[in-house]
Specification:
Number of strands: 2
Distance between the termini: 39 Å
Shape: globular
Order of helices and strands: HHHHEEHHHH
CATH topology of the largest domain: Arc Repressor Mutant, subunit A
Structural class: mainly alpha
Number of domains: 2
Helix content: over 70%
Strand content: 5-15%
Largest sheet: 2 strands, antiparallel
CATH superfamily of the largest domain: Winged helix-like DNA-binding domain superfamily/Winged helix DNA-binding domain
Mean pLDDT: 87
């Protein structure tokens, strides 16, 4: 098999595996909502549609529709005009997403990226990492943060 054919097969395999993995997780959009709901709960106690819309830069009717969907899926308890709170299942998922976000921000900062850019970039990539990759990144970040000389000697 030539290099181009190998690359094509690797791409096919990766997309197939990603599809299977993604079918077991929430969609990127649902994950975005869960993250914002969690942060709003932590800061304000409840996630109101107007604040969710503002945080995600979407229209309020879109928020209402998604909150109804999340309520049906058992991830939030939504009451019209009162907002939403995460259920136990929703809170577990949101906490996991928060940890993933934090890890990727820390990783980018270790690489020398400023914090603002790290958060922006993380929003674009955080939904696409396999758990094995996140575990490996976690070990790397822990080592780099606890032993700066180790990391510094590799970046000179």
């Amino acid at each position: 098999m030539n290099l181009d054919a190998e690359r094509l097969e690797a791409l096919r395999s990766a997309h197939q595996a990603d599809g299977v993995r993604r079918s077991k997780r929430h969609s990127v959009r649902v994950e975005d909502y869960l993250e914002v709901l969690h942060e709003l709960e932590l800061v304000e106690g409840r996630a109101k549609p107007a604040r969710i819309a503002e945080s995600l830069a979407v229209a309020r009717p879109s928020v209402t529709k998604m909150l109804q969907r999340l309520d049906e899926e058992g991830l939030v308890e939504y009451k019209r005009y009162h907002g939403a709170v995460l259920t136990r299942e929703g809170r577990i998922a949101a906490a996991s997403l928060r940890e993933r976000h934090s890890l990727l921000v820390r990783f980018l900062i270790v690489l020398g990226v400023d914090e603002e850019t790290a958060h922006i970039d993380t929003e674009g990539i955080e939904h696409h990492f396999h758990e094995k990759t996140l575990d490996a990144l976690s070990r790397l970040v822990e080592k780099a943060e606890t032993d700066p000389d180790w990391w510094g000697s590799r970046n000179r």
